[in-house]
Amino acid sequence: MSDFLDRLDPAFREMIYADGPHISELLRTDVAGARAASAERSARMAAALPEFEGQKDAYHMPGLPGEPEVSVIEYRGRDVLYPDCAIIWLHGGGYLLGSAEDLAAQRYSALAPVVSVDYRMAPEHRSPAAAHDVCAVIERLATNRDPRKIILAGPSAGGGLAASAALLNRDRGGPAIAYQMLIYPMIDDRHDTPSGHMDIPSSGWTREASLHAWSLYAEQDGASPYAAAARASDLTGLPPTYIMCGDLDLFLDEDIIFANRLRSSGVPVELSIYPGAPHGFNGFVPQAAVSKRANASIRMALEHALS
């Protein structure tokens, strides 16, 4: 752990040294308690921000045939630059935590309407239920707008879900979407890389917490590419992709490998790695200099894709 702490950007020390119990620890024994702690943390972060001044609408979309409706929240800024486009936003939380009521979803609503999806989570629903929900939203949005103006985006598990839903959408012959924005995506249930064995403090997203989350989320007979996108053997025909990760993130190596495999498969890829940055850095400490660079990069990539 000393290597992790020596390399940590000082801006994240308070985040890493925070007193427990930590969500990654709670998650391994008490999912309901971890969900409550996560919601409380989100509420504290929301209270410190100005109230959202745009339009916010909660509604349902039809699920895939034979499946339940999908709940979404649509955020639309006051003056939207690309109103005929859409960003499908998928929240993080290890496939177990979080909701469509997501502060990060609001961040990009001045660029285009952001449709934040309350996808089905584990342990109540294993994969591929979540990817099915996302494909239902893609198909519904594509009925009244150009699918080449639809972007899939999300952090952590949301980024992993964006990647797996893009694979499922391709394999189902769904609409050809414009772009996938994968922010430190959780895409490989094995974590069998050097970064996957990194000694991370319990205040961060640890190997133990991640493997436990995968054990609840992936299919019981083994993870498919619609759970863990890194398991896909064929990455051709996927939309242009942006991948971002900190270099003190459990997911670093698997994200780099995935980016290289996409590139080798003919998919245009932009890859950004930020030094001294742990998992979730740009959301938890947005005022840090490295977070500002990362968030500016995400915004510029989205603007480029939307335009």
UniProtKB/TrEMBL annotation:
Gene3D superfamilies: alpha/beta hydrolase. Residues 87-281 form the Alpha/beta hydrolase fold-3 domain. GO terms for molecular function: hydrolase activity. Keywords: Hydrolase. It comes from the Bacteria. PANTHER family: AB HYDROLASE SUPERFAMILY PROTEIN C4A8.06C, ALPHA_BETA HYDROLASE FOLD-3 DOMAIN-CONTAINING PROTEIN-RELATED. This is Alpha/beta hydrolase. It comes from Parasphingorhabdus flavimaris.
